[in-house]
Amino acid sequence: MYLTKEEEQILNGEAGETLRQAIGILVTLGDIYGADRLIPIKSAQIAGVSYKTIGDAGLEWISDLQGKVKVPSILNPAGMDLEDWERLRISPDFAEKQKLIVQAYKKLGIQCECTCTPYILEGFNVGYGDHLAWSESSAVSYANSVIGARTNREGGPSALSAALLGKTANYGFHLDENRVPEISIYVEDKLEVSDYGALGYVAGKLVGSKVPVFHLKNSPGVDELKALGAAMAASGAVALYHVEGVTPEICRLDFEEPAEKITIERKQLGEVYESRKKACKEPELITVGCPHCSAAELKKVAKLLKGKTVSKEFWIFTSRELTKCYPEYIKTIEKSGAKVVCDTCMVVSPATNSYSCVMVNSGKALAYVPGMCGAEAVYGSLEACVEEAVDGTEKKAGDSY
Ligand code: F3S
After folding, report:
1. Parallel, antiparallel, or unpaired for β 132-134 and 43-46?
2. Fewest CB atoms within 10 Å of the CB: 28, 58, 173, 179?
3. Is the CB of residue 131 less than 8 Å from the CB of residue 44?
4. Which residue, judged by its Cα, is nearest atom 2 of ligand 1?
């Protein structure tokens, strides 16, 4: 891989040990994947934040790093709500370690808003064709597919290295030739909002890491695309997809129709709703917000919960910024007894581990909760999740929005 004189000096340790390690990681990856050079990036999003996933070894590594990031950089969800961790019964020991991890990242100049939807944040603008080093799989999928930006699915250390250098190795989804659709997916039925997570769950298993192009009967909005991409990245390893007539790259560029074609039928989506129901008849915990809820989704949850009381634990995950922008939705949701939780999620928080059956409206959470939290998971629409959580008691509602 070609390195400039300055990059050679960094690799030789002339800019300090942290940058030597950082460029070493990028050069190793670049050599493995055939990169020709390092390219500048606009931003980085760094996974490997929850103490549940990185443990003491991760904390030690991050704490030893010196210097500051060179581009706007943000964190993926941590293992707890950083401002209200006691509410989900996180242990004080876990909380202490989690705070140390976030402080170590902060010391490096990283923005400590912990979210998997950085693209909605003011000041974290990403545009078509921008090169990024993002690591959370749903955010990567959204950036590549819905925005038309360019990022590989970075590991935590490589995203952090890219942030410290302001560069990444030029391979994979940074290159035109790897963004071409490889398989066509036809979906014959019209889809409901909740079907997109189920579709992603089915499609990811079928296509693995190929780049699919969907031919749909309806035009999904951004929240449906977010759910589709997140699920495909979890049940498969899809980091980029196209939707004919909807996503920007397929609309701007001339791609040939792939030779490989599959059709996904309503019956296959129905199986996602039914899957694991036998093992998990009675959900004890209901969670939504994987990926983190958008403003529109918070509004919908608030509307569905208005004047009602939940009878089961119901957690709604979102970014802290949105809770500040839409306090009226949060107030309505929390009045029902449901909990709006920031900085974390049902998968990376240890709080989920104490339940045996969790209901989700996310194909990604359906794929990850069993393995990461030791709980069974069942899938339903947002409306079905709210229904499961509510005891049916209608209250007089005072809120309006
Ligand atoms: Fe985000 Fe956690 Fe889901 S990081 S995409 S809410 S698994």
Report:
1. parallel
2. 28
3. no
4. 345
pLDDT digits (tens, 9 = 90+) for 52-97: 999 999 999 999 999 999 999 999 999 999 999 999 999 999 999 9
Rounded to the nearest angstrom, the distance between the alpha carbon of 200 and the centre of ligand 1 is: 15
Task: Find out whether the beta carbon of 364 lies less than 6 Å from any atom of ligand 1.
Answer: yes
This prediction has a pTM of 0.95
For residues 119 and 143, is the Cβ–Cβ distance under 8 A?
Answer: yes
The ligand 1 atom at the shortest distance from the C-alpha of residue 139 is 5
- The CB of 52 under 6 Å from ligand 1? The reply is no
Question: Nearest to residue 171, comparing CAs of 143, 199, 151, 142?
Answer: 151
- Whether 198 is in the pocket of ligand 1, judged by its Cβ within 6 Å, is no
Helices and strands (H and E) in the chain: how many: 15, 17
The amino acid sitting at 188 is E
**Torsion region of 396: left, alpha or beta (phi above 0 gives left; psi -120 to 50 gives alpha):** beta
- With b for 16 or more beta-carbon neighbours within 10 A and e for fewer, the 79-89 pattern comes to bbbbeebeebe
What torsion do the CA atoms of 24, 25, 26, 27 make, to the nearest 10 degrees?
A: 50
136 lines ligand 1 (CB under 6 A): yes
338-373 pLDDT per residue, tens: 999 999 999 999 999 999 999 999 999 999 999 999
